Amino acid sequence: xxxxxxxxxxxxxxxMLVASCATAAPAAPAPTAEKEPAATSQxxxxxxxxxxxxxxxxxxxxxxxxxxxxxxxxxxxxxxxSAVISNCYETLTFYNPPNSAEILSPVLATSWExxxxxxxxxxxxxxxxxxxxxxxxxxxxxxxxIEKTMELGMxxxxxxxxxxxxxxxxxxxxxxxLSYAAPLDLIASSGYGAWIYxxxxxxxxxxxxxxxxxxxxxxxxxxxxxARGSRLVMTRNDDYWGGWHEGQFDKIxxxxxxxxxxxxxxxxxxxxxxxxxxxxxxxxxxxxRDDLVVYSNPSFQNLLGLxxxxxxxxxxxxxxxxxxxxxPYAQFIEGVMNGRAIQAHGPVPAxxxxxxxxxxxxxxxxxxxxxxxxxxGYPDGGFDLLYTFATGDMDxxxxxxxxxxxxxxxxxxxxxxGMTWESQWNLAKSxxxxxxxxxxxxxxxxxxxxxxxLYNMFHSEDEIMFNLGYxxxxxxxxxxxxxxxxxxxxxxxxxxxxxxxxxxxxxxxxAIFFYDVANTHIARADIQGYADNPAYPHVVFxxxxxxx
Amino acid sequence: MYRLEYIIRRLxxxxxxxxxxxxxxxxxxxxxxxxxxxxxxxxxxxxxxxxQARETLGLDRPLYEQYFRYMQGVLHGDLGKSVKTHQPIxxxxxxxxxxxxxxxxxxxxxxxVFGIPLGVFSGAGKGSLLDHTTRLLAIAGVSxxxxxxxxILQLIFFGRxxxxxxxxxxxxxxxxxxxxxxxxxxxxxxxxxxxxWVAFKDALLHIILPAFTxxxxxxxxxxxxTRSTMIEVLNEKYxxxxxxxxxxERAILFILALKNAIIPTITVLGxxxxxxxxxxxxxxxxxxxxxxxxxxxNAVLSIDFPVIVSVTLLVTVFYVFINLFLDLAQAMIDxxxxx
Lengths: 548, 339
Prior knowledge:
The complex is a heterodimer. By secondary structure, chain A is an alpha+beta fold. Chain A has helices spanning 2-22, 52-56, 82-85, 139-152, 184-187, 199-204, 207-211, 260-269, 283-287, 317-324, 329-335, 366-376, 394-409, 421-429, 450-458, 474-486, 491-508, and strands at 60-65, 93-95, 104-106, 109-114, 120-125, 163-170, 173-178, 221-227, 231-236, 251-256, 274-276, 292-307, 341-343, 383-390, 412-419, 438-443, 511-524, 527-528, 546-547. Chain A is globular, with a radius of gyration of 26 Å.
């Protein structure tokens, strides 16, 4: 007994010793040869036992990712998996970052045109492109992918709802006939549900196979391996139609860590090249470092407080306007959000077509609010309101808590209640008389169109899905429907009409337009070519990057 | 004879426990206000998608029928799919369970190897400097919050000294150029079997900090438990008799006394082991360890009921069998238990 015990202790001590000696070699940081060794004091490289030299020279981009990838099936995925999927699959068109000359640029389609009423769309396809499994990319493949996605009906498949038939005109031309006018070129650029995949491979395999770590797109990278919950490795597709040049990355590694502090240490220590979701309070200290670059950009996601427009007292426009004047926008964004947001101009986020900075913006003015309340017949407030937020969302919670204090000054008692998202949603759908007064609600578009915001949250609905403030205004409905029909053919006119519709919403104070969320990403300073594109949130198109 | 009857009795009880646990978890998970169909279709669903999902998932059937369908699947090894990620749960468990098991086993090893001798010496030299130091260590072990300790250890050993890796089970470059072939899912074992010593060393380095962090609680517990029972046992007359007989002090401590003193420690360690399977969540998150704790916590947060029920069943199976094993071990050490 004695000997065994001491033997065990001895063994463990020995292991520890081996461990501490061994640290001179690989330990943690310095994952690639190109990486600056500053993070560790040991310049020593791991010398793998086999085929070391060529392997170690590979240029690897490491993305410290805060979530796992739930679904790698391009027909179904509607979540954070875009970070992986968009490096492997491609769409017909691409939505350019804000301030680009054109809204869209060609990817798998080289050009496209629509008939006058935007019900027939013809896409001319890129020639000589192959899927990663060798299947040729052609009109047949486009028809298959989109029909399959529609048939499965999962994820964002509904974006194709207007499509009635898809016709293969010739090998490189495909024609869509729609049942009503829609901007199919924009729909085709969606980061969800619009990926084109190999018909052969998709027929031969199922979702589980894809989720094991396979992909069958036309994109620059393919999945090499996947360790569920911890790591995903992509490797370059040498036959990529877009070609390769010096300095581009050979591999992409996604290292998953759900702890924001750990992600921060990873980017600081140089074990990853790119990350997001680190504690907001620590961003300031990161932006002072020479070896890191902090990118902060407005996203296409915004936070609104949907107001129950069919229940007293919020059925009164004056009361809704008073509420709009009672939230301390600037102070909140500065003090609580640390600049991770910008105050919204209406329901369509900045940077998106159909947004206007000239739209009226409510500001914090309790006197004005009091005046409006008096006019509405509530000089001393004297009513209660229920504000619900998704449990766990600190930002939504803080909006409620900060607002509560200001509303108290107007004699309004705000109950701030956290609920699971689904129960919050069910409460809101249970009819205007039972529903909460204010629903803290995020929206972001599937494909980039103001219609996504204006239709889903404010268009009259017989069966309520997302118009959770029960807003009803037939004139407004007609205006946005008409604008949507035009948005495929006359985008300038459509944009004007969408802005007109937003004026109505702002004047009606149909919601509190709290803020547009700003996305913050952190990259190592030697990463070049990165530009945030809010149409594809948290996606890095690694093919565009190089290392200095 | 007694022993066989005892085992059978315990096995029947184990099955009863499993059935009750499955019923209770299934119904609680389904009764809480949530809509699995809405979770299944994602964030911007259409009404048709929700309705279709309800049918696909069988949620339109009566609750008892859903339970029987689910249990039928379980008995055939099909744990269903997560409503949040659509992944087959059994595939997920094959990844996450070995990761947690490896971590917990190593931490238990640390607790036993260090805890028992320290407890023995501390108990034997009651009031000595060693005893005081050990007691302090034990109290610290059970009271320091693990996530805090984990972060501090990371700051020191990764941030300042650069001795040990920050997180994960294996470094990026090993994963790229010397990948471990998956056999048991235990990286230390898989790399050792295949003779991939670079990966073995890397995996060992990666497991040190999380295992040590996770071990602090059971380590403190082992020390305290062993110490107090040792003090009790050392006052027994048979120990006095052994001393009079001139048996060496080490033999008295580690053979005669420990044999009787170790039973409560084993029980506590067994329970702490099972607890760690899902209770290691904080350590797992801090060290990005892809384990069961993180998996089930995410499932609970999103009310992913098939995952919650499956993990609960798995852990219950472990709990029941570890308990059974412990009872048998005790019966072996002390046959009076079977009476």
